[in-house]
Amino acid sequence: MPFLRKNKSAKFVEKPVDNSVYDYILNIYNINHKIITVTYADIIESFRRYEVLIKAGNYRKNLISPRDVENLWKKHFIPSLKPLEMDLIQPGTKCLDAGCGAGLPGMPLKIMRRDLDLTLIDANRKKTLFLQNVREELGLTGITVIQGRVEELPDKFDIVFSRAMGKPEVTVPLLKERLNPGGKLLLWTGKREKTDFLGGSCEEIDIDGGGKLVVFKR
Q1: Distance between CA atoms of 135 and 188, rounded to whole angstroms?
Q2: Among 1, 51, 102, 208, which has the highest number of CB atoms less than 10 A from its own CB?
Q3: Which residue segment(s) compose the domain that 105 sits in?
Q4: Model confidence over 181-209: pLDDT tens digits?
Q5: Which pairing describes strands 212-217 and 201-206: parallel, antiparallel, or unpaired?
Q6: Secondary structure element (H or E) that encloses residue 205, with its range
Q7: Digit-coded pLDDT (tens) for 44-94
Q8: Structural domain count of the chain
Q9: Any long-range contacts for 182-185 (C-beta under 8 Å, 24+ apart)?
Q10: What is the pTM of this model?
């Protein structure tokens, strides 16, 4: 169901999504077609429902920046899928989305790749309750939602994501501790963000529309 917004005359109009967004998602679908277990139409429908849930909940839960509400697909959904474009996530990978907020990037990745074993953690109770609702509304399995802090987790993961947890120089040491040997840390940052402190094997990948994906391999 597409999101409907209210205009000044109190009538509801559908906000369109740029065709380039659908083309990008179709490209990701084709890249991962041997792993994806649902149809392209099902994926688009899940993203539309997720969009509705974020917009409906944002006014009460402050899930994302208000200025991004009307551009969710290009500002949040598409950048979240960059690891799938770059073929960085193997089938059945155990993933952690740290400080996940509205579930970005973890939820878009899970919508595309139902094989992922995904844990979402955030200290904010309103946000974790929202994510539990998203999980149920979209009928997604293989998702664990935890209210808490990364440093309190007993488990370790093959891949750890971080898109809005805080300054990399503060959060990265905590995130590294959650990696299995040979694991990857994926950071979404601004293009000018310094990441030379990471050390080890590190790659920076530009994201269309702004920002970069930093890939650290343990």
Answers
A1: 23
A2: 102
A3: 4-217
A4: 999 999 998 888 877 767 667 889 999 87
A5: antiparallel
A6: strand 201-206
A7: 999 999 999 999 888 777 888 887 888 899 999 999 999 999 999 999 999
A8: 1
A9: 182/158, 182/217, 182/218, 183/156, 183/157, 183/158, 183/159, 183/217, 183/218, 184/88, 184/158, 184/159, 184/160, 184/215, 184/216, 184/217, 184/218, 185/159, 185/160, 185/215, 185/216, 185/217, 185/218
A10: 0.90
**Pairing of the two strands 179-189 and 143-147:** unpaired
Strands 201-206 and 4-6, sheet pairing: unpaired
Whole-number Å distance between alpha carbons of 42 and 162: 26
Contacts of 92 (CB under 8 A, 6+ apart): 115, 116, 117
Instruction: Identify residue 88 by its one-letter amino acid code.
Output: L
CA distance 205 to 141: 30
Which of 170, 24, 164 has its CA nearest to residue 105? 164
By three-state DSSP, how is residue 217 classified? strand
Of the pLDDT bands very low, low, confident and very high (cuts 50, 70, 90), residue 15 is: low
List of long-range contacts for 9-17, beta carbons under 8 Å, 24+ apart = 15/70, 17/73
What is the CATH classification number for the domain harbouring 93? 3.40.50.150
40 exposure class (CB count in 10 Å sphere: 0-12, 13-18, 19+)? middle
In sequence order, the 6+-apart residues with CB closer than 8 A to the CB of 109 are: 80, 81, 83, 84, 89, 95, 116, 118, 161
Tokens in use for 126?
Answer: 């309103």
